[in-house]
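Hey, weird one. I pasted the Pimeloyl-ACP methyl ester carboxylesterase sequence into the form twice and got a warning about non-standard characters only the second time. First submission, copied straight from the form history:
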Amino acid sequence: MPTTPIFWKNKTVDIEYQWVNEERIDSPIIVFLHEGLGSISLWRDFPLNLCKELGVRGLVYSRPAYGWSTPRGVKEIWQNDFMHQQAMDVLPKVLEALQVKEPVWILGHSDGGSIALLAASHHPHLVNGIILMAPHIFVENLTISSIEVAKQQYLHGDLKGKLAKYHQDVDSAFWGWNDIWLNADFKHWNIVQEISSIQCPLLAIQGFEDPYGTMAQIDGIKEVVSQASLVKIPNCGHSPHREQPIIVQKAVKDFLQLHEALI
């Protein structure tokens, strides 16, 4: 995958990125923001399949510390505002580096969904609308319990081996995510009021069997962002695009057509 440099946290980091369906040069752009342990490759073929179905372009990138983007520094510890930094600093710099001049649609999964919410709140001029899958707007006990399980699977099970093929530095990706989510201070993280300023179209998708979050997450979004549309999927866990791709694809297509993003 190609990389593009951005200046972040007083240093230059390389960002792994990929354009999909890029021949549709006059179509809307969807930017895909991966989950807390994700990367370009962990999206698999979902961005390409979705963009071809919709007739749009897609931009997928691995955030710093993930995939083949620059790993975390040896002494770099993420703070409670790590998702704010991604939304308010990294995302705009990636768009600038790749010469994306028009507002984009953002599709974010899990942490990527939270980053999409923050981007729409703080940089409304960059965002046409947002599509969220299993986003977080506050910390639930269920989430913490599942992340603690993931830690044990990484230390004593096969999770590290499974993730290693998707990241050049798997410890950089895993511990950056796991350490901050299990930090006692992070239990107070909450962006509910912060996202109440969002004016753009919003679609939020959640599975009923998600071990990392309940319907309280997207119901909470609807309470403060009145134009939000919700899709609640039975027999679906934390990755709706992998577990129920047909439902997700239809929901996204209907949403974009409703807001005239698709001709």
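That's the output from the first submission. The warning seems to come from a hidden character in my clipboard, not from the data itself. The chain has one domain: 3-258.
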